[in-house]
Amino acid sequence: MFPEATLCLRAAGVGWTKAGLLAEVRPLTAHGSSRRHFSLQRCLGARPSPRKPPRERVDIPGLEKITYADRMHYVPGLAKPENPPWERDYKDPHHYYSPKISDMPLFKEQPCYLFHQKTNAMEGVQQALWLTKTKLIDGLPPRLLSLAEDPANQIPDQDERVKNAIKHARFWDTTEPRPVQQRYSKVLLQNLLHLCASLQPSHPALGRRILSENYSLAATWKRGQDLFQIRGMNGLLYTSMDPLPVLLEPQDVEETKEHVLETFYPVSPTIDLQQVNVYHHEKNSTGFQEGYPYPHAHTLFFHDQKSKLCTLRPEQFRAKMLMFTFGNALARANLHTEPQSLLERPVVVQAVGTNGRYFHFLVFQLNTTDLSEDSGVKNLVWMEKDLELYEYAKVRPLIKKKQVQVPAGLAGYNPQTFHRFLSLYLNGAV
Questions:
Q1: Which of 12, 70, 278, 365 is the most buried (most CB within 10 A)?
Q2: How many Å apart are CA 430 and CA 101, to the nearest integer?
Q3: Residue 286: inside a domain
Q4: Residue 248 burial (C-beta neighbours within 10 Å; 0-12, 13-18, 19+)
Q5: Does 14 lie in the same domain as 163?
């Protein structure tokens, strides 16, 4: 007589779980279409009611509360006794309560602005240039690009072996029809580094370098009245026994005094940076202990990984590359010296960023560590962005309207992108 009500009661008879109710509560009308039951769906989809705020305790001076503490059990009408918090005489990690931020030993009134791996700078490279007091130069230095043009510095069958490295990362490393970007970008970078390392017999200086992973960086500086820090891990770091050669001579560095830094008013330069009050005031660390045989940062390698937790657009990704390259140079310069308006020997650090297809190249030269004022000598950065290593790498052909739009395999290989990669790798060894 009541088929729909019968099915609802039948669904309620199955264990009161969301999966069981959704599986059973599907009555059909005479035409075979499903019908919603608001009485059940509201219970399944509604949000839980918010918790009631705790009742405020009122203490009236001159009156003593009558509690049930002496009776050792709850008594209606009597107040709940207030017992002092019990403190353990041992450390229990499962019952640890951190002190208030204001009570911590490293608490300071002046806030510090942090830049870390997941920072998504709103203004991108322009914001990073202002924070680091840097002048941007488009393109890489010609002297650096000429290193890969020399046939003596090239790899035998270079283009064919680079294509095989790309195919290994996109086709041969996995059996999936569509490989994951986080995987093939790392494999491709490892293949290219392994390919460049094959030049060590003809370039013995390459043996004075080593790859480091998951090292922790910390650098502190002042910009105006604000305090900034770079902290965190940034992936692969190529370190060397010898520092990189300086790109500009001192007389050319003096000309940067005339450069005016671009501002983005009314947007604050500290936008999207994490503000903290618990920090070490003067913390500068390259991530390695004193006496490490490879103390000089050579090249940083970044993976542009797309994840649910952190997704950076290309502009913000290049800003992160610039900030961490600057942080490595600044931490090295600040180890044993105070802030200087002009360094006797500028610190040069390189960076390469990729998502497995596009590459970004960056060379940073730290000329000054006195970053509080906008005037004076500026730091320099050479940047080349959005260089395509290949156009397509398809496991299966792309077919539309019975016509092959993109054939299977590798297409559109660009040898100039690897030339820049090789030039940065050989810098300091030729």
A1: 365
A2: 52
A3: yes
A4: middle
A5: no
Task: Report pLDDT digits (tens) over 284-315.
Answer: 999 999 889 999 999 999 998 777 767 889 99
**CA 76 to chain CA mean position, Å:** 57
- Residue 411 forms beta bridges with which residues? 392
- The whole-model pTM stands at 0.80
Same domain? 18 vs 143: no
Mean residue pLDDT of the chain comes to 87
* 99 in any annotated domain: no
- What's the domain count of the chain? 2
In DSSP terms, which residues pair with 379 in a beta bridge? 134
Give the tens place of pLDDT for each residue, 36-49: 555 555 555 667 78
Contacts with 175 (C-beta within 8 Å, 6 or more apart), sequence order: none
What is the bridge-based pairing of β-strands 403-406 and 409-411? unpaired
Choice between 25 and 174, residue whose per-residue pLDDT is larger: 174
**Residues of the domain holding 384:** 132-224+233-260+280-426
The CA distances from residue 133 to 90, 176, 371, in Å, are: 50, 46, 6
Q: Name the H helices within 120-230.
A: 125-132, 142-149, 158-167, 181-196
- Same domain for 142 and 25, yes or no, is no
Beta sheet of 107-115, edge-to-edge order: 216-223, 226-233, 107-115, 274-278
Q: Which two tokens stand for residue 86?
A: 């019990």
Per-residue pLDDT averaged across 204-227, rounded? 93
By the 8 A CB rule, do 131 and 376 touch? no
Instruction: DSSP for 253-300, please give it.
Output: HHGGGG------TTS-TTTTPEEEEES-SS--B-SS-TT-S--EEEEE
For the cut 60, the answer to whether the pLDDT of residue 28 exceeds it is: no
Reply yes or no on whether the pLDDT at 60 is more than 90.
no
- Do residue 166 and residue 295 come from a single domain? yes
